[in-house]
Amino acid sequence: LLKSFCREHLNGEEIIELNVKEGQTIEAVCLQIGLPLNLISLFVVNEKPKPKDYVLINGDKVKCIAIIGGG
Questions:
Q1: Is the pTM of this model over 0.90?
Q2: At 14, phi and psi to the nearest 5?
Q3: Which residues contact 66 (CB under 8 A, 6 or more apart)?
Q4: What's the number of CA atoms in the CB half-sphere (13 Å) around residue 3?
Q5: How far apart are CA 51 and CA 44, in angstroms?
Q6: 62 neighbors 35 (Cβ within 8 angstroms)
Q7: I want to staple 65 with a disulfide (CB 3.0 to 4.6 A). Which of 6, 11, 13, 42 is the partner?
Q8: Phi and psi for 45 in degrees, rounded to 5?
Q9: C-alpha–C-alpha distance, residues 2 and 6, integer Å
Q10: pLDDT tens by residue, 7-63
């Protein structure tokens, strides 16, 4: 689901590698690459859940988990 919003940033392994600026948050990076925050239910940084205002540092590995609906 989320890949369709940022396909131009994906490499061959479906990973996006970015250099973050000092003080940049997960939210800012998501907006920069075109991910709609309202579709993301969980942010995971280095295998730990983090809020969208978490300030990233170089080397962080971020996963954005999409909202999954059911019924």
A1: no
A2: 60, 40
A3: 1, 2, 39, 40, 41
A4: 6
A5: 9
A6: no
A7: 42
A8: -120, 120
A9: 7
A10: 665 566 566 677 788 899 999 988 888 888 888 889 999 999 999 999 999 889 888
